[in-house]
Give the backbone structure.
Amino acid sequence: IMPKVRVQKRGKDRASPMASGATTGIPFRKEMGQHILKNPLIVNSIVEKAAIRSTDTVLEIGPGTGNLTVKLLQKAKKVIACEVDPRLAAELQKRVQGSPVSTKLQIIVGDVLKTDLPYFDVCVANLPYQ
């Protein structure tokens, strides 16, 4: 009988490479409440609950790396993404660049509370709760 092989599991004390921003090469600023929405079920749930129509202009607050943005672009006429971190705004721009939906995205770099916002029909956000 062979002994059991112990598999080291990731716990709360060990940061996963995804949580540290390894996918984008950008470390997240926890003091800004930055976090990444990775679970596709939650992304789909947010989009579904927003009841977005093909004629809607959507304001997304804090798009981060764009996991939710990409889904919003598939449903909406236009997405206005307001991101306070210029590094993440640049990553989002790179992510959609050259795709069929790239013309539907407008990125605003700045604090959404201090920005003059254009007209929108629906606001969608996955905000930090700290």
Notes: The first helix runs from residue 40 to 50. Residues 83 and 89 are 6 Å apart (CA to CA). The helical segments are 40-50, 67-75, 86-96. Strands lie at 57-61, 78-83, 105-109, 122-125.
